[in-house]
Amino acid sequence: MNPSDPLLEAVRRGDARALARAITRIENREAESEELLRALFPDSGRATLLGLTGAPGAGKSTLADAIASLLRQRQKSVGIIAVDPTSPFSGGAILGDRIRMTRHHADDGVFIRSMATRGALGGLAAAAADVALLLDAAGKDTVLIETVGVGQDEIDVVRLADVTVVILVPGMGDDVQTIKAGIMEIADVFCINKADRPGADRVENELRAMLSIGHRDDGWNTPIVKTVAPDGTGVPELLDAAESYIAFLRDRGLLANKKAHNWRQRLLDLLRERLLEHALAVSGEERLSQLAERVARRELDPYSAVDSLMQRTV
Ligand SMILES: Nc1nc2c(ncn2[C@@H]2O[C@H](COP(=O)(O)OP(=O)(O)OP(=O)(O)O)[C@@H](O)[C@H]2O)c(=O)[nH]1
Ligand SMILES: [Mg+2]
After folding, report:
1. pLDDT, tens digit, 9 for 90 and up, residues 225-275
2. pTM above 0.70, yes or no
3. Dihedral sign of CA atoms 167, 241, 107, 116 in order
4. Nearest partner of 160 among 304, 274, 258, judged by Cα
5. In this structure, are residues 104 and 112 in contact, taking their beta carbons and an 8 Å threshold?
6. Residues 121-151: tens digit of each pLDDT
7. 112, 100 contact by CB (below 8 A)
8. Which of 29, 57, 99, 102 has an alpha carbon 20 to 30 Å from 216's alpha carbon atom?
9. CB 145 within 8 A of CB 158
């Protein structure tokens, strides 16, 4: 890509329309998007990536909004990526995102984008990671990545964050015991949102009991912060807790390790995607379909079918 390409220049300036256009390219997996990201890579690496995950309706969007407002007061620019693997809609606003888009819409310092498409190969987590890189290169100081915490997809999404906040709420049936182990393990900070509702103290006690049993490998004591997102109560403390974790990692020289660990995962994802693309390009979709039909007719076992696809590839 030409270094003086107007789109590249506009993205670097943080121009919202250029960002929207670039993200659409990433989502549609257009060939130029890779060139764009390659060219922008040297500009990235400065933003703090903050993951927010929790059950549907836990208040992720409202919290992201409140955090963005606080960061804006501190003259920081913000990108928000709302990733919803359960929604078939994309390319604009989903659900509550419309509301905050109007709230921050006059402010160039906040860029918000919802993502829901699943690429044929690679998937949503990879696309979200590319968008985070883009916003980072566009000069956003903090990139908030909001995702519904229900399955592997969202665990993949938050894995790209420097710090992950897991949001719980009182009385939604997601008692601490019933929360998926995978989600609990990725929490660097716990947020009990809707603390204005009864039962917040109970959730806190259960969490404390749970945290007192296990210890993290990195020695971090996972803090618990109570918030009421709509009026911003507890949001400064939540941001402090997230920033403390990053400082903790940095002070111990662990931040570079964590980033390398995350990149290792990304590289594996990219490799998987490239190899698959290559294999399918070499063998052809038709050959794949033929083999699938033969397996379905029990003429061929699936392992031999894959072997045959591999042999053509290498
Ligand atoms: N009482 C109370 N309501 C809250 C609080 N935070 C959010 N809400 C409300 O909870 C509802 C869901 O909030 P969202 O921010 O849309 O939640 P979300 O987690 O982004 O939801 P999805 O994106 O649909 O998964 C909204 O009606 C909010 O106004 C809170 O601290 N207290
Ligand atoms: Mg939301």
Report:
1. 999 999 999 999 999 999 999 999 999 999 998 889 888 988 988 898 888
2. yes
3. negative
4. 258
5. yes
6. 457 788 889 999 999 999 999 999 998 865 6
7. yes
8. 57
9. yes
In DSSP terms, 110 is beta-bridged to 78
Residues 164, 2: Cα–Cα separation, whole Å: 36
Any ligand 1 atom below 6 A from CB of 144: no
Secondary structure class of 94 (helix, strand, coil) = coil
pLDDT in the model for residue 91: 46
Q: In this structure, how many other beta carbons lie within 10 angstroms of the beta carbon of residue 293?
A: 11
The CA radius of gyration of the chain, in Å to the nearest whole number, is: 21
199 pocket-lining for ligand 1 (C-beta < 6 Å): no
Rounded CA-CA distance 62/73 in Å is: 17
Please give the helix or strand (H or E) that residue 148 lies within, else none.
Answer: strand 142-148
Q: Which ligand is nearest to the CA of 229?
A: 1
Domains in the chain (CATH in brackets) are 44-252 (3.40.50.300), 267-313 (no CATH)
How many angstroms does the Cα of residue 138 sit away from the middle of ligand 2?
23
